[in-house]
Specification:
The complex is a heterodimer of chains A (113) and B (115). Chain A has 113 residues and is mainly beta. Chain A contains no helices and eleven strands. In chain A, strands 2, 4, 5, 6, 9, 10 and 11 form a seven-stranded mixed β-sheet that branches. In chain A, strands 1-3-8-7 form a four-stranded antiparallel β-sheet, with no helix packed on it. In chain B, the strands form three sheets. In chain B, strands 2, 5, 6, 10, 11 and 12 form a six-stranded mixed β-sheet that branches. In chain B, strands 3-9-8-7 form a four-stranded antiparallel β-sheet, with no helix packed on it. A two-stranded antiparallel sheet of chain B has the order 1-4. The interface between A and B is medium-sized, with 27 and 23 residues.
């Protein structure tokens, strides 16, 4: 089944404790992206990647890191999480050509205390 | 740069009534347009998309949307809603090529269908 998977689905942590949210897709997509969803703000892009070893900042990159060592994986790293990073995070992927439809993972709900 | 405005943050309707969720966009270039749906505690699922051609686009679950270039709108409609349509709906745009390929989302419209 074609899908985007994220882990963990739920995470409660404390300020300053490094964490990683994994994202993996099995559709051979070149493009991958991370979004955060906050009430009243919709989805905002954090980082994106157009291929292996190619990443760039989105609209709200502060406090986040990403890497793209393999085509299928695009982990999101919070080196020192803060309470304002409490949010619902989505990973998405798509082909660079064609319809550009993005496929979304199920989301990771992060709470930073 | 593109931007998307969803004109209603919440839309309550009764079951079997028609509904229209409004979306306007701003862009200096042509765009692809999408509507996504997010059911409670789930990820986003594509409802329909407009790439080119016919301005009336049909999607899943009986939804349709009409692209109006002169009004830069892409409103979503359903003639008769069900309780199961209760969800949050997002309009999004992206340029057909070049740039960051990112989806620019509206802030969402929460549709609540009441019995």
């Amino acid at each position: 089944e074609a899908q985007v998977t994220q882990n963990p689905r739920y995470l409660i942590t404390v300020t300053g404790k490094k964490l990683t949210v994994t994202c993996s897709q099995n559709m051979n997509h070149e493009y991958m992206s991370w979004y955060r969803q906050d009430p009243g703000l919709g989805l905002r892009q954090i980082y994106y990647s157009m291929n292996v070893e190619v990443t760039d900042k989105g609209d709200v990159p502060e406090g986040y890191k990403v890497s793209r060592k393999e085509k299928r994986n695009f982990p999101l790293i919070l080196e020192s999480p803060s309470p304002n990073q409490t949010s619902l995070y989505f990973c998405a992927s798509s082909f660079l050509r064609g319809t550009r439809e993005q496929f979304f993972g199920p989301g990771t709900r992060l709470t930073v205390l | 740069a593109q931007s998307v405005t969803q004109l209603d943050s919440q839309v309550p309707v009764f079951e079997e009534a028609p509904v229209e969720l409004r979306c306007n966009y701003s862009s200096s270039v042509s765009v692809y347009l999408f509507w996504y749906v997010q059911y409670p505690n789930q990820g986003l699922q594509l409802l329909l998309k407009y790439l080119s051609g016919s301005t009336l686009v049909k999607g899943i679950n009986g939804f349709e949307a009409e692209f109006n270039k002169s009004q830069t709108s892409f409103h979503l409609r359903k003639p008769s809603v069900h309780i199961s349509d209760t969800a949050e709906y997002f309009c999004a745009v992206t340029p057909p090529q070049g740039g960051s390929e990112k989806l620019v989302f509206g802030k969402g419209t929460k549709l609540t269908v009441n019995p």
